[in-house]
Structure formats: structure tokens, C-alpha cells
Amino acid sequence: MTAFLIAAAVVALDQISKHIVKANMRLGESFNFMKIFDIHYIENRGASFGILKDQRWVFMILSSVALVFMAAAMVYLSDRKLRKENRHINIALALMLGGGIGNMIDRFANGSVAEPGTKAVVDFIEFAFVDFATFNVADSFICIGSALFGIFMLMGKYKLKKDGESAS
Predict the structure, then answer these.
(1) Tell me, what DSSP letter sits at residue 158?
(2) Residue of 14, 131, 139, 163 marked active site
(3) Which of 14, 38, 106, 123 is catalytic?
(4) Is residue 86 classed exposed, middle or buried when 0-12, 13-18 and 19+ CB atoms within 10 A define those classes?
(5) Can you give the pTM of this predicted structure?
């Protein structure tokens, strides 16, 4: 259950940050924050980093399937006999799930300012020192969770079978 609370916290952080940006900035407006980041309010009608622009339904279907599988994996790996060995993997999955849900909320509910009648994800974080895509809190957690998931898998920080189960 802790992993689901982490996912809920990620969703909350993402949605609050997007609400603050939308409430206090105009689309396209930008300012520097701490000399490291630019806060630049844009709308993204594609997937992460703007790929698959205007392919919203295809991406939403694929994302929904991935989110269901992540949630199911978290439930399975949270079983009492597997919980301790899988806490690292569950945290990584929770970060990815929370980020995915945060962006999915935008795809379903966030009306575009630029194109009324369409939906768009709010992006607003840019690195000030390198030319890179504009992203948001959800994207950050998806990337962090994915990196941790890969690291934990490589380190063998998981257990897939309960004690006493056979390999077949």
C-alpha cells in the first residue's frame, strides 16, 4: 500500500504544479528559476517530450494498458511473502505509475488554451543550460522511476515467486 501512496503523492505534486503554472502564467510565457531551470508554460498534445503529436488516442490506449500492468505488478509484488524483497521495484513502479496518471489526467481533462476543444498536457520545465525538451513533474518521475527500475532489475532487487512455488 505504501507504493500506492507514493503514486498518489506524485499525482498530487504533478497536478498542483500544473495548476500553479496555468493559474499564474500565460501560454508561452517564460522566466528563469534559480539559474538552472526556465519555467516556460507550453502545451503538449503528444507523448513525452512532444513525440507522437496529435496521436492522442493511440498514445492514451497504450498508456492505459501500461498503467494497468504497472498497477497489477505493484499489487502482485506487494503480497506479504514478496513485499520485503520487492520494495525497491515497487517504489520505482509507483513513481512511473504516478507520473503516468498525472499526464493521463491532463490528456482526459485539461482543455487546451491554444486550441479550445482539444486536450493537452501542461509542460513547463526547461533546463536553462542545455537545449532539451520542455517537460513537467510527471515526466520527471516517469524518467526517475524508469531509471531506478532498470538499476534495481540489474542489481537483482526483486523476487517474483512466493516461497515454496515451483519454477514451472
Answers:
(1) -
(2) 139
(3) 123
(4) buried
(5) 0.86
Q: Helices marked H in the chain — which ranges? A: 2-24, 56-77, 87-109, 137-155
Phi, psi of 37 (to 5 degrees): -120, 150
Assess whether 38 carries a catalytic annotation. no
Give a yes or no: residue 15 inside a domain. yes
**123 included as an active-site residue:** yes
Flag whether 166 is in a domain: no
Please check whether residue 35 is in contact with residue 127, taking contact to mean a CB–CB distance below 8 angstroms: no
The per-residue pLDDT for range 51-76, each reduced to its tens digit, is 666 666 777 888 899 999 999 999 98
Domain membership of residue 160 (yes or no) is no
What are the distances in angstroms from CA 52 to CA 9, 89, 107, 117, 157?
A: 28, 28, 13, 19, 33
Least Cα distance to 101 among 58, 68, 78, 147 occurs for 68
Q: What is the count of structural domains for the chain?
A: 1
Count CB-CB contacts under 10 A for residue 41.
Answer: 20
Share of the chain above pLDDT 90, in %: 56
163 found inside a domain: no
By the 8 A CB rule, do 32 and 128 touch? yes
First to last CA, the chain: 29
Q: How far is 97 from 149, CA to CA, in rounded Å?
A: 12
